[in-house]
Design brief:
8% of the residues lie in helices and 33% in strands. Strands 1-6-7 form a three-stranded antiparallel β-sheet, with no helix packed on it. Strands 2-3 form a two-stranded antiparallel sheet. Strands 4-5 form a two-stranded antiparallel sheet. It has one helix and seven strands, in the order ββββαβββ. It is elongated, with a radius of gyration of 16 Å. It has one domain (14-81). By secondary structure, it is mainly beta. It has one helix at residues 42-48, and strands at residues 14-17, 20-23, 26-29, 31-33, 59-61, 63-67, 73-76. The structure holds zinc ion. Residues 7, 9-10, 12, 67, 69-70, 72 line the site of zinc ion.
């Protein structure tokens, strides 16, 4: 990602960041997953346990950029920037 990239809305400078997924006592990078999420309801989570089903091979970490002027967020899910 080019650090000199400008905001598509206002032309402001984009700064690099990420969106932490904070749960329990830990934080992780938010990720994109190919395909549809399962359609569990909150009652299913109580009955069968927490969390969506996922395939680790289909997960790509999200890199986010924030405009320093208007706050617009621009995100990429590029495998080359994933862990
Ligand atoms: Zn902007």
């Amino acid at each position: 990602m080019n650090e000199a990239q400008k905001c598509s809305e206002c032309g402001g400078k984009l700064e690099t960041g990420f969106i932490p997924d904070i749960s329990m006592a830990a934080a992780f990078k938010t990720s994109w997953h190919r395909g549809e999420a399962d359609d569990k309801t909150i009652l299913d989570y109580v009955k069968y346990g927490p969390g969506l089903k996922y395939d680790r091979s289909k997960v790509i970490a999200i890199q986010a950029f924030r405009c320093t002027q208007c706050g617009l967020l621009k995100m990429y899910a590029n495998p080359s920037t994933s862990d």
